[in-house]
Design goal:
Distance between the termini: 14 Å
Helix content: 25-40%
Strand order of the largest sheet: 2-1-3-4-5-6-7
Bound molecules: inosine 5'-triphosphate
Number of helices: 6
Strand content: 15-25%
C-alpha cells in the first residue's frame, strides 16, 4: 500500500481526489530540514517517513514563491502562515507593482530501495515537481486551504475552485499527474 504522509487535510483531499484508492493517508509530522528549495526538504522527509511507516510513502512539500520578494516565503511558507498569516502576506504584497508569484509542490516517493551508492545506508527517493504561476490578490473564496484565497490563476483564486478543478491546473495537480504516470509504469 502507498501511504500519503501529511498532517494537512487540504493536501490529502486533493491527493485523494486525484489518486483515489491508490493511497492511504498516514498522519505523521516529519522533521523539515532547512533548505532554499523544496526538493531536499521533501526527500529528507520521505526517507524519515519511510523509516516510520515501513511501507512505500509519498510526502508532499509545497510553498508559495513571490517574485518581488525573491521567492519569499518559499520553503518558509508554513512558518509564515502560522506567524503573520495569509492576509498579512497580501497586505505586504498589495503596494508592489509586480505581484506575480508561483506555487510549487514536490512529491517525494520512497519505498526503501537503497540509493545507487548504498554504502552509507541512504535510501533512494524519486521527486516529482509541479509549478503554477499566478498573481497575489486580495483574499477571495472559501474553498481550498492555506494561501489559496490570495492566489489568482486565470481570473479565479484557488479558494474559488473545487479540489477537482484546482487539481486540473495547480502545482499539486501537476506533480500528482507526473507522479501517477511514473508510478503506473512501475
Ligand atoms: P505537511 O508538511 O504535514 O504535509 P504542511 O501544511 O506543514 O503539511 P507544507 O510545509 O508543505 O505542509 O506547506 C507549506 C505551507 O504552504 C503551508 O502553510 C500550507 O498551508 C501552504 N500550502 C501548501 N500547499 C498549498 C496549496 O495547494 N494551496 C495553498 N496553500 C498551500
Amino acid at each position: 500500500m502507498l501511504h500519503y504522509v501529511t498532517t494537512n487535510p487540504g493536501k490529502l483531499r486533493e491527493a485523494s481526489s486525484y489518486l483515489g484508492e491508490a493511497i492511504e493517508s498516514y498522519e505523521y509530522e516529519y522533521a523539515e530540514i532547512q533548505a532554499k528549495t523544496l526538493e531536499p526538504i521533501a526527500a529528507a522527509g520521505a526517507r524519515e517517513a519511510y523509516r516510520e511507516v515501513g511501507e512505500p510513502v509519498v510526502v508532499d512539500d509545497a510553498g508559495l514563491f513571490i517574485d518581488t520578494f525573491d521567492g519569499f516565503p518559499g520553503p518558509y511558507s508554513s512558518f509564515v502562515e502560522e506567524t503573520i498569516g495569509v492576509d498579512r502576506v497580501w497586505e505586504l504584497t498589495e503596494s508592489e507593482t509586480n505581484r506575480d508569484a508561483e506555487f510549487r509542490c514536490v512529491l517525494a516517493y520512497c519505498d526503501g530501495t537503497p540509493a545507487e551508492d548504498e554504502s552509507d545506508g541512504t535510501l533512494a527517493v524519486n521527486c516529482f515537481t509541479g509549478v503554477v504561476r499566478g498573481e497575489i490578490v486580495a483574499p477571495r473564496g472559501t474553498g481550498g486551504f492555506g494561501y489559496d484565497p490570495i492566489f489568482e490563476y486565470e481570473g479565479e483564486t484557488f479558494a474559488e475552485l473545487t479540489p477537482e478543478a484546482k487539481n486540473e491546473c495547480s502545482h499539486r495537480g501537476r506533480a500528482l499527474a507526473s507522479f501517477a504516470a511514473w508510478y503506473d509504469d512501475q
